[in-house]
Amino acid sequence: MDLNDDQPVTELGTALDAPLVSVCICTFRRPHVAETVLSVFEQKGVEDGTFEVLVCDDDPERSAAPLFRRLCAVAPGLRYIVSGAANVALARNQCLAQARGSLIAFIDDDQIADAHWLSTLLRAEAAHQAHIVKGFVRGVYPPTTPGWVKAADPFTRDYGPTGSRLKDGATGNVLFRRDLHTHHGLAFDPAFGTTGGEDIDFFRRATALGATMISCREAVVDEIVPPYRVERDYLADKALRIGETAGISSRRSVYGRKRALDETARALAGVSLGWIYPALRPIGNASAYRVMVKFWYSVGMLRGLMGMGVRRMA
Fold it and tell me: Does residue 298 or residue 93 have the better pLDDT?
């Protein structure tokens, strides 16, 4: 596609004929998404033509267009499309609509894939005949990170030994069958598109339909954590929003009435930690972090179960 610099860009790149996997990256004003894309193209153990890379720009100003004008010119199998909605759920849905592979992988635009990331996910999918495979996320922290945050390691997400059955997941490092969307109609809910949690809701509904979701500890991506995300207030707010999303999913009877009642009971137990949390707050260690997260997640869960909306991401 030959475009002048002053033309509005809606799509760049050329689609592969029949890739096995569409690797999807949603981005919003993060120029270092180029490092994510490069790490995907440096994958080992997969044949040429196995995958395409689809980047969806969620910025209404299409700020990533100049970067991808250059990248798409030299990288066959890379496509740039525009959502421009400032709503990550709509950007993810555009990826679902545009993807050409029978399998879809999502990686976040602040993550860097290990060289064997994709081949490892594919082996796990084939070996376990899973509908969804969730990989390991390793947090990479800024030098200014407080010691208690490093000890708690909140951005490293280990879903258990490979093959462990899961009910919850997220789009940062995941592979799933495209027919969850094309045959079963699953899509990301725009109601969560400015608050976060659209991916948790998506995979909860997938497993509620009977989809098999497993972990793959050997499929690794590094998540580059910016300084503001290691602050206590951000971590508490994140736990609250995740809890709100989970509560709303349960209220919608994704898992049925019994699961909603069980989660209500657990949330009430978590909120009972409120009398411990103020005492631990000044301590600043991993145990205090876990109590804090449990408390605010439980508060969020109760808010969601009571029908309160999820607040916009900071």
Answer: 93
Q: Beta partners for 177?
A: 103
**Cα–Cα distance, 275 to 268 (Å, whole number):** 13
Q: How far is it, in rounded angstroms, from Cα 106 to Cα 93? A: 12
Angle between helices 198-208 and 88-98 (to 10 degrees): 50
Which among 96, 97, 76, 94 is positioned nearest to 85, based on CA atoms? 94
* Shared-domain flag, residues 49 and 198: yes
CA dihedral (195, 305, 180, 175) in degrees, to 10, reads: 60
Whole-number Å distance between alpha carbons of 157 and 222 = 10
Could you count the other beta carbons within 10 Å of the beta carbon of residue 226? 11
Higher pLDDT, 111 or 276: 111
Whether residue 214 is found in the same domain as residue 82: yes
Is pLDDT larger for residue 203 or for residue 287? 203
Whole-prediction pTM value?
Answer: 0.87
Tell me 282's DSSP state: T
Count how many domains the chain has.
2
Q: Residue 216 — φ and ψ, nearest 5°?
A: -140, 95
Residues 259, 201 share a domain:
no
Q: Identify whether 6 is part of a domain.
A: no
Same domain, 83 and 206: yes
Q: Please give the pLDDT value at position 167.
A: 87
Instruction: Report the chain's C-alpha Rg in angstroms.
Output: 20
Higher pLDDT among residues 1 and 280, named by residue: 280
Q: Count Cβ atoms within 10 A of the Cβ of residue 86 and give its class: 0-12 exposed, 13-18 middle, 19 or more buried.
A: middle
CA-CA-CA-CA torsion sign (216, 151, 25, 249): positive
pLDDT score of 299: 83
Residue 1: inside a domain: no
pLDDT, position 4: 42
pLDDT bin (cut points 50, 70, 90) of residue 1 is very low
Judgement on whether residues 163 and 218 belong to the same structural domain of the protein: yes
